[in-house]
Design a protein that fits this description.
With 100 residues, the protein is mainly alpha-helical. The protein has three helices and no strands.
Amino acid sequence: MLAATALTGGAIALVWLVAVPWGPMVCPAIYPAPRNCFASDRAGTALVSTVIVIVLYLATMATALVGRRVRALTIAGVVLLAAAAVVSHLAVVWILGFTL
């Protein structure tokens, strides 16, 4: 449960404190610029990523509280949360995402 909480906090912090304010380091010099080059446009994708991470966290917590019979699901949830931290950051920074 501690690992899931730490991974969730880290994933959300990585998205909102790193990916949204700074985003990609290099944007092409074209007009109009891709949507992921502006922080306001990355916020929509960050919101979707945050919701997905929170749903994964709640599902992991629910399986952890059910009992030891679903321990494999709890471990899978923690692994998914670790992957979600990386994938959500990359999605916000590099994928042309959703606008608010």
